[in-house]
Design brief:
This protein is of the alpha+beta class. It contains 5 helices and 5 strands, in the order βαααβββαβα. The chain has a single domain, classed as Aminopeptidase. Strands 1-2-3-4-5 form a 5-stranded mixed beta sheet. Helix 1 (13-30) crosses helix 3. It is globular, with a radius of gyration of 16 Å.
Length: 169
């Protein structure tokens, strides 16, 4: 079985949007704020097009035998002015369809983007994982990642007062 990761192209945007919507559903079940705080800006199609064309971002498609089963979005983030010559390769989103999990698709995506960033001289990497998403945490820890920050959140609005569609805000 051949597992690969390739750069996404503009023609891949409909596929990316479809995969993103599955990721969005999975993440929203873990934390209702995900679509408005951690996901992509709407319209998602435009966000993917912008990311594919951006010099400081990478969008990859994970495939098994040439069939797409996942994607990754990562970007270069600058450190504070105290460290003007350093940047972090930040994996913002990674998703693999259920039937393709634990066969190497996510690893191919993660390793490929890290190699792409290393080729740019980037040696520091972050990956964004929701609290309670044990599989994602374990996946990144197995790849040598460890937590360096945890974002705590409080919301005064009870869930009954919020719209059922987080994109409505």
């Amino acid at each position: 079985m051949q597992v690969t990761a390739r750069p996404a192209e503009i023609v891949d945007v409909p596929l990316l949007v479809s995969l993103y919507r599955r990721l969005e559903a999975e993440m929203t079940a873990l934390h209702p704020m995900w679509p408005v705080a951690d996901g992509l800006p709407e319209p998602v199609e435009a966000s993917f097009k912008q990311a594919i064309e951006a010099e400081d971002a990478e969008v990859l498609i994970g495939e098994i035998e040439g069939v797409p089963f996942g994607f990754l979005y990562a970007r270069v983030e600058r450190l504070l002015p105290q460290s003007p010559d350093q940047a972090i390769g930040s994996i913002r989103l990674i998703y693999t369809e259920d039937e393709a999990r634990e066969v190497g698709v996510a690893e191919a995506l993660r390793d490929r983007v890290m190699d792409m960033f290393r080729a740019r001289g980037i040696t520091k990497f972050d990956a964004h994982v929701l609290p309670g998403h044990r599989l994602a945490k374990n996946f990144f820890e197995a790849g040598g990642f460890s937590a360096r920050s945890i974002v705590m959140h409080h919301d005064d609005d009870p869930p009954t007062r919020r719209s059922r569609d987080p994109r409505a805000h």
